[in-house]
């Protein structure tokens, strides 16, 4: 069984993530936290810090796609907690915590960093001399967490240090050095973040009705 992630940390991460994405704040529900995302592909999501009776109860009441149940735990743990009929497990990720060190932002030659701030949300993009978007990411800070979100590098610009430059630039926006740094990484992203000093807190698994199994 995967180590449980502290429920307060999950709440803090979701609160900052919702801030970064302009979503409603998370609400405690069924032993986890609900976020009403209301996007074209996702109506609502629940995030659970651990398997609980409430997770299974919630899942048994869902019969339509667009409602995602996410667990800070392994795919096997989530699969065992979900009703068998109709549910599929998507590709797993990882809840990670950052090193908090203040590395100096640096951008490779031939690129330029642009920073936009709106309240507690910071958007960083790296563009080429021709103005082409090469890499980007968001950061959001609350009193309890600094979340890195939607970190992406265009395929043709990878392996040039742009992801690291985005991360370091976002970190420089932190106003409180001791604020915990959090993100959810894909399998591919995990390797990059670990080279930057990030540590895995837990696997992160997703179940949904009717999605193709990955």
Question: Any key phrases for this structure?
Answer:
214 residues; Aminopeptidase; 2 domains; alpha+beta; single chain
Description:
The protein is globular and about 55 Å long. The longest helix has 15 residues, at 7-21. It folds into two domains: 7-94 and 202-209, no CATH class; 111-179, 3-Layer(aba) Sandwich (Aminopeptidase). A hairpin with a 2-residue loop joins strand 7 (111-118) and strand 8 (121-128). The protein has 214 residues and is an alpha+beta fold. The model has no long low-confidence stretch (mean pLDDT 93). The protein has helices at residues 7-21, 53-60, 75-81, 162-171, 187-195; strands spanning 27-29, 32-35, 44-48, 67-71, 87-89, 93-97, 111-118, 121-128, 133-141, 146-153, 181-185, 199-209.
SSE inventory with pairings:
Blueprint: H1 7-21, E1 27-29, E2 32-35, E3 44-48, H2 53-60, E4 67-71, H3 75-81, E5 87-89, E6 93-97, E7 111-118, E8 121-128, E9 133-141, E10 146-153, H4 162-171, E11 181-185, H5 187-195, E12 199-209
Parallel strand pairs: 3-4, 10-11
Antiparallel strand pairs: 1-2, 2-3, 4-12, 5-12, 6-11, 6-12, 7-8, 8-9, 9-10
What global shape is seen?
Answer: globular
CA-based gyration radius? 18 Å
Annotation field: number of helices: 5
Q: For the terminal residues, how far apart are their CA atoms?
A: 21 Å
Provide the domain count. Answer: 2
SSE succession: HEEEHEHEEEEEEHEHE
**Low-confidence spans:** none
Summarize the biggest pleated sheet: 12 strands, mixed
Total strands: the figure is 12
Strand portion, in percent?
Answer: 25-35%
Helix and strand composition category: alpha+beta
Oligomer: single chain
Helix content bin: 10-25%
Average pLDDT over all residues: 93
